[in-house]
Amino acid sequence: MTTFGWRVRSRREALGMTQDELAKKLNYKSRSSVNKIELDQRNMKQSQIAQLAKALETTPGFLMGWDEKEPPLPSNISVPAAYPVPILGVIGCGEGPIGEQNFDGFFYIDRTIRADYALHTKGDSMIDAGIQDGDIAFLTKNYDFEDGQIYAVIFGPDNEAVLKKVYRSGDKAILQSCNAAYTPIILDGSDMRIIGKLTWICHKAQ
Questions:
Q1: Catalytic hit among 36, 75, 141, 164
Q2: pLDDT tens-place string over residues 91-124
Q3: Is 164 a catalytic residue?
Q4: DSSP label at residue 82
Q5: What angle do CA 43, 1, 191 make, to 5 degrees?
Q6: Is 45 annotated in the active site?
Q7: How far is CA 23 from the centre of its chain?
Q8: What is the pLDDT of residues 165-204, one digit of tens each?
Q9: Considering only CA atoms, which of 40, 47, 159, 145 is closest in space to residue 97?
């Protein structure tokens, strides 16, 4: 889930604006005030949010997360080649699935890759799909379901999270590993929730 600060930073960077430049537009004494906003360390009044939105050529609704669609950039702005994607924790790729939601900074990726968030992978159950322990998986929340594609899935009483190929058969869901050492996980479809579709993998440095 994106935060107010993340949206501010994303919009600022999309405009090619530095923290110093935004601070100047807002009549702040230094960029530290902007930095606190982007780190979600500052409470803001409605009037201040409106002023910030105007400086970023967007709407208060977008910054607050009420409007999902980001307003278009001005015609004189060239879109940067990369944009920030939040890394939100760890997802299991093995036995004893792990699901942690801990913000771990941003990863900049090319705009040709669709992703809403990223997760560190843990385990070896997806190695035949080229996903290794310690890679970073990038996922999109908006997708059309296709049998056999790789998805991030939450299931079980502890809301365990895994990265698997997903198949549907009637009211059943099959979570298939890409490693012959692991057996499929078969669930009632109602016991599973897909939280994202895999769009790209960044391999850890060797």
A1: 164
A2: 887 655 556 567 777 788 877 788 989 999 999 9
A3: yes
A4: E
A5: 140
A6: no
A7: 27
A8: 999 988 999 999 999 999 999 998 888 899 999 999 988 7
A9: 159
